Each structure stands twice: as C-alpha cells, then as structure tokens.
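Revision sheet: structure tokens.
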Amino acid sequence: MTELAHARAELAQLDKREHELLEELWHIHRNRKVWRTKIDEHTTKGRSLIDALPVELLSRILHLALRAEADNGCDVHRHRKWKLAAVSRRWRRTILDSPAFWTTITLSDQWTPPLVEVHLERSRDCLVDISIHGSNYDVNWPSPLIDAAMPCAERWRSFAIHGDYNVSYVHAFTESAITSFPSLIRLDLGYGAVQYPWFLERGCMPALEHLGINCLADSSVICIPSGIKSLDLTITPYRRLESGISLHLPSETLTKLHLTTELTSASFHLNPLHLPYLKSLGLNVRDLLRFLEVIVAPALTQLSCEKSLAQSRISASFSHIAHKFPDVHHLVLSGWRISRATLAMLCSACPSVRHIRSDEHCMSILFDMDDMGSYPVDGWQDLECYTVDEVLSMALLFEHPILAWHRQRKLRGPMFRLHIQKIHISQRPIPPLFDTIREWCTVEEFELGGLAPLQLDSVVRV
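Predicted:
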C-alpha cells in the first residue's frame, strides 16, 4: 500500500504541474498577442493607406496608372515607370519584382539596346508586346533595337509599327524575321504602304490571329495566311497591272474584315468571296455595291461603310442583293456626301438593322425628308437605336429634322432610343435646355467651350 500511495502522490504532483504549465502557456500566448498588437500599432502609425494594400492590389493600381498615361501617347515604360518606382521601397520592389511591368517594349529613338535587354530579362518567361513609335529620319535606327529583342522572339505576343517613316521600320523587321514567332498573335505593320511581306507565307507565325497591313498593289495575288481571324487590309495603288489583283482570304477562320482601297473594282478579280464565319465587315472602297455583291457572309452581324462612300457609284438596280445580309443588326456609316441611293441599297441588303451609328454628316442625309414626307431612315422598320458620335452645335441640333422625325416615330410605335455621344456648346446652357434634351435623347457628354466636360449620369429612354 505504501508503494501505491507513493505512485498516487507522484501522479497528483504531475497533474498539478501540467495545469500550471498550461495556465502559464495561456498567459504567454495572451501577452504575446498584446505586445504584437502594440508593435503593429507603432510600426503602422503614420503609414499611408496605399502602403497597407496587398501587393496584388497595389500592382493592379500601378498598372492602371501606367495604362492611363499610355493612352495619352506618353512613353510610360521609359520614364514614368521609373518615377513610380522612386516613390518608396515598396513600390520599387513591386515594380521590379513583377514581370507584368516589363512586358511592354516601346521602341523609339529614345530607347537603347540595353534598355530593351533589361525589359526582356525582367519579364522572365512572360509574353511581350513590342511596338515601334516615333518619326526618325535615320532609316537604320530601329535595326539595333529589333536585334536586341530577337533572342526572345519565341515570347513575342504582338508587334506593331507606328510613325511617319514606318516603311523603313517594316524593312528592318522583315530583314530580322529570319526565325519563327510561335507565340505572335497580333501583327500591325503600320500605315506606310509596303510590298507584301514575304515572311508571312513561310508559316513562321503559326499562332497569328490578327493582321493589319497596308500593301502596295504591285502583285497580281494577295494571299493572306490561313488562321487569321481579324484582318485590317489596305491596298494602295502603285502601278497598273496587266492582270487584276486576286484576293485570297482565310475563309475558314476569318471573323472580322476591314478593307480599304482607292482602287476600283475593275482592278480586282472579284470572284465570290465565301466567308462563312465572318461577323464584322468594314468597307472603305470606291465601288461599294460591287464588293457587297461578291462577299458571301451568312453569319454577318455588323457592317461598317466609311468615308469613300462619297465616291461610290450606286446603280439604280440592286434588287439582286436584297436580303443578302439578313442578320446584320448593327450598321456604321461615315462620309461627307453619302447618297440616298447608297442608303436605299444598304437598306435592301440589310433589312433587319436595329442600331445605326454615324457621324453628324450622315445624320443630315438619314433624316432628310423628301417631297413625299418620308425619311431614308424609315427603310429600317426594326430600328431601335440611333447613335451619333458627335454634334458640333447644339443650336443646329434643335433645328435638325431629326426632331420632327423622332416625334413621328414616338407617336407611331415602338420605344426608340436616340443616343448622342458628345455635344459641343460655347456656354453653359440654362436648365430648361437640359430638360428639353433629356426629353428626347440620351447625351453622354457635353463639351463646354473653355470649360471641363459635363457628364450626364441619367440615361433616358424615349
């Protein structure tokens, strides 16, 4: 019994010690938490709210700041990025350690090959977007910069050329295009007319989806590589060819096409162009009717007809293209002297248009009442919305026949929306004038002469 009593006493002592240790550990944990809170309060005292943001959110804010300035034409990746990095150590670390800040490479005469190499190194394995900007009389200046970027050609996601002397830039790129660009998705070769780039036919850009190019009409064949989904093609007159130009497009993949040319349809071999997946078509051509005749696009939903409509010759008979594009619901028009015949032809080919967007010049023709009291726009019975990009004079707007047409349309039937992107006025209008505008249309912005733009928040359906 003596041994049993001793064992019980030892166990009791151990239980008591365990309880004391657990209580002591609880007190240590509580005190540790208190002191940690005090330390955090002292270290964060006077700290700005933006420095308390998570790194991911701070990185996003800095990206938006760079993008906003880039939209204003500023070379943010050459100087603004460094200014942001100099704000604080945290900002500097965020910018230097994030590859996303180094994926945009804007080549200009103010860039150097070492600066290009730094961007390529810090972007790590991310895809990069490369563009050439500026005007430079030295035709050789882009070559060293392109050569510095070529070792990472497999990471190029987009390449674009801008500037007044971009013909030389294209030649610099074509001379460097001796390798493949497996990740290149977008290629814009600027506005300067060049010979059709031979490297496009080599299959060195298997992932290419968008192509923007201005070709000289010096070849009888223009063959766009397969796989292209979006094409912005300009064909510039160069010399008279003995035979017409044959245009070959990637019919199985093309969903968006914008074609610009001053050549007449007689300069082309315009066989039917079957584009079964084409959804958006933009035409800036002299013979609009002829191009609409040869394009077969059953899935087309948006049609844009641009400035050269002033030169289009529309014959009196176009019944053969009636209802050719029944699913076109969005129509965009721009041109100084668009004719009634052009509108009648478009109305016949695209009878189901629901939304029309135009500039102020086309608006004058769309809502010009004839001797019979009808308007050209009345040809679209399903029209739900009309948008005009910009109105230069509010005084003229209130005298425009669009008001009379709108009153008739409102009395006749379905709800209709009239949307004006911007109205220019010379002075602040009185409140009743605002109320009058709100009664019959939606205005997105008033541009006040000498004053800041005034945004209108409410959207009015009339």
